Amino acid sequence: MAAAAMAWTAWLDLNLYTRLPWLGLIMAAAILRARGLTLHLLPLAAGFKQSKFRPQGREGALDKLEGFCTVAEEALAIGNKDLGRLILARELMQRVTKDCRSNSRLPELVDLFLSRPLVTVPLGAKLLKVTPKAVDLMLAQLGRTRYRAWGIV
Q1: Residues 25, 71: contact at Cβ < 8 Å?
Q2: Does pLDDT of 81 surpass 60?
Q3: Cα Rg for the chain, rounded, in angstroms?
């Protein structure tokens, strides 16, 4: 976390994009991911939107570090909310998949939904090695309202 905080502080000090401080937060999240601390990009930019810290350019290093900590705290809260939603969605979809046949690809489709931010029918068909019509039928089996809420096209 210290390396990510230092990278964001350096981004602010360089003053490259004064109106886009969240770009530095994406870089900081990439540093965390590269060091193996997260498996995904931590939503630091979303945490920046929620936090009250706004860099003015005249803060000291301690103020910037405190600002990064509040941003990270907000990002972790957002991440926990998303994780709770994903767990609930997985439980709901597993209720449907528990009664399917042993050779069904429906559980794999559920795992695909939960592993990616956006899944299209052609992508699902390619990754599951089935036809797009089969993906449509599986989606109908899960329930149309559920997969529209997930942003699946």
Answers
A1: yes
A2: yes
A3: 20
Comparing CA positions, the residue from 22, 21, 19, 42 lying closest to residue 30 is: 42
pLDDT at 145: 45
Question: Rounded to an integer, what distance in angstroms lies between the CA atom of residue 92 and that of residue 83?
Answer: 14
Cα angle for residues 60, 65, 68 (degrees, 5° grid): 130
Closest CA to 48 of 67, 65, 33, 61: 67
Closest CA to 35 of 78, 5, 65, 59: 5
**pLDDT digit string, tens, across residues 96-106:** 888 788 888 88
d(CA 58, CA 37): 31
CB-CB neighbours of 84 under 10 Å:
10
Pair 25, 5: CB distance under 8 Å = no
pTM of the model: 0.66
Residue pair 109/128 in contact (Cβ under 8 Å)? The answer is: yes
Give the separation between CA 67 and CA 47, rounded to whole angstroms.
11
Neighbours of 36 (CB within 10 A): 7
